[in-house]
Amino acid sequence: MEKLRVCLIGCGRAGMIHARSYMGGIHGAVLSALCDPMEENRIAASEETGVTKTCSDWHDVMKDPDIDAVIVVTPTQFHHDIVIAAAEAGKHVFCEKPMASTEQECDEMIEACRKYNVKLQLGFMRRFDKSFRRGKELLDAGTVGDVTMIKSNTYGPSEPKEWMYNVRKSYGPIGEVNSHDFDTLRWYAGSEVKMIHAIGHNFRSPEKAAEYPEYYDTCTVMLEFENGVLGMITGAQYVRYGYDSRAEILGTNGIIKVGSQNANAAEAVTANRIIQADSMDSWRTLFVDAYKAEDQAFVDCVLNNTEPPVTGVDGKMALVLVNEGLRSILEHRPIYLKNGIPEE
Ligand SMILES: NC(=O)c1ccc[n+]([C@@H]2O[C@H](COP(=O)([O-])OP(=O)(O)OC[C@H]3O[C@@H](n4cnc5c(N)ncnc54)[C@H](O)[C@@H]3O)[C@@H](O)[C@H]2O)c1
Predict the structure, then answer these.
(1) Ligand 1 pocket, 335 CB below 6 A?
(2) Which of 98, 104, 335, 344 has an alpha carbon within 20 to 30 A of 24's alpha carbon?
(3) Which pLDDT band holds residue 271 (cuts at 50, 70, 90)?
(4) Does any domain span residue 77?
């Protein structure tokens, strides 16, 4: 194979981040086709990337022998069918998170990719972020001794869209902003979760409380891993001040701090003893290099026939934790898991 020929399926917000990675140069691959049923997005993507092979129906992508791999960045409800069809057509798959809507769908996607011998990589880009990776290297090197507790937070700035107030559809912040934190904690802990207990409250949209009594914009999630490590995730939506994603690993012999709210390394300290700095505006800015690195890692694993660095099982486990976290909030109780799967 000269170069991996990749088709982007879903040219929206996140899809175009991947498109731009490829346009910026991914070694060993070329973005060769675009698929999106929404004409406006498809044309805009084609004009921006210069890719002229486009289609509106993903079924056509599967019939095209000149496409070797797909990047699936459609709304989550379509991931399952597209990934399975791609596997059956022998096309390697990069799939954005959340992987699907249910555990069973995840299992079917994993099985199809195994059966048809295609790679399946999931879009947890924090694993490719320089700071998060450095945290993992320091942890693995034993720099702070044995890991005792891991904390991770994500707070997002934006006002929720109307559909997000129904948390049975949107999952609220635990799904919207914290799904990446669950993956980070599993990655850092090197173990599966055996207990999850989450609580949430609505602080910023009291006017929505009557119509959406289950809505919460802020949550804390307590976790215990099978290897004894303790975990804490906090999440919030509509914080206004910027996008804030940080982690902390407390060891028996020290602490590792990952990430910063500062958008750059510049700070002004003035005579009135005020420190001024720029806050990070968006996940798109913070993780732009990480998205590119994960796209490169996907192409490398296909070309070198190695295991994807983030697997379908990682996608499934994060989904389970989001589902069980929401269940814990709604039922006001801890949930117990065995081998990462709920016991009841
Ligand atoms: N890794 C991350 O941090 C991250 C960030 C944002 C979104 N996402 C995920 O990426 C996916 C897309 O989210 P988004 O924010 O880009 O959404 P979006 O609405 O901006 O874009 C989705 C695009 O998919 C297209 N589409 C809809 N149905 C399609 C179909 N059947 N076939 C092909 N294209 C179809 C839409 O027309 C649209 O252009 C979701 O699963 C989302 O959770 C991940």
Answers:
(1) no
(2) 98
(3) very high
(4) yes
